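The following block was generated as part of the benchmark described in Methods. Ligand: fe (ii) ion.
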Amino acid sequence: MNIEFHCHILPEFDDGSENIEMSLEMLRRERAQGIDRVILTSHFYRQREEPDHFLRRRQKAYDALCAAIAEDGGEFPELKLGAEVAMTKELLYEDLKQLCIRGTRTLLLELPFAPMGSWFRDVEAIIHQNTVKVVLAHVERFRACLDKKSFRKVMELPVTKQINTTSLYDDGFFKKRELLKMIENDEVHILGSDAHNLTDRPVNWDKAFKVLTDKGMKDKIRIMMRNAEKIT
Ligand SMILES: [Fe+2]
């Protein structure tokens, strides 16, 4: 089973899909590119919103999307609610289980786009609390704001690490060669498109699958999809 682990497809919710039509088209593309299950990981920022408010708002957007899918009558991937939870100190005192992918104890956590600081100890504390299983969102992107030693410390955290499909063909965030080596060494574990729209941040599994297939790493696609399936 192929899993989309990270995307912003819920309509009118965050900086992702702008409306229901866009959400439906994004989901059609997910399916056309071989995705069976989509985890809807809308942004959650604790400093801007109470969890209760976020969860109510998310349910509303999800219900609207499900109604549109039913009306469309076409074939769509299975959907599951989740969140991309931005790391802040306040998370140490929250019930993180409610922010996990529904029906799991898996929390997609986004580190701050900032140099190494006290946030790292807070991330370690959340991991040690062990109330949820942390998956670090698009871990490769933090190579751009962390020095080599700090990035290594992040990579050594004993958690699952998700990477963005875009990074496999776009050198903007990370040198492709280094990323392929990390996949080869099983240092990163799950793929997500982090799709936000139909244009500059689209569903792009085709391109990513081609890169990995051309590099003879089809088995790694299977392994990463299986990793995602196990925890969703
Ligand atoms: Fe994201």
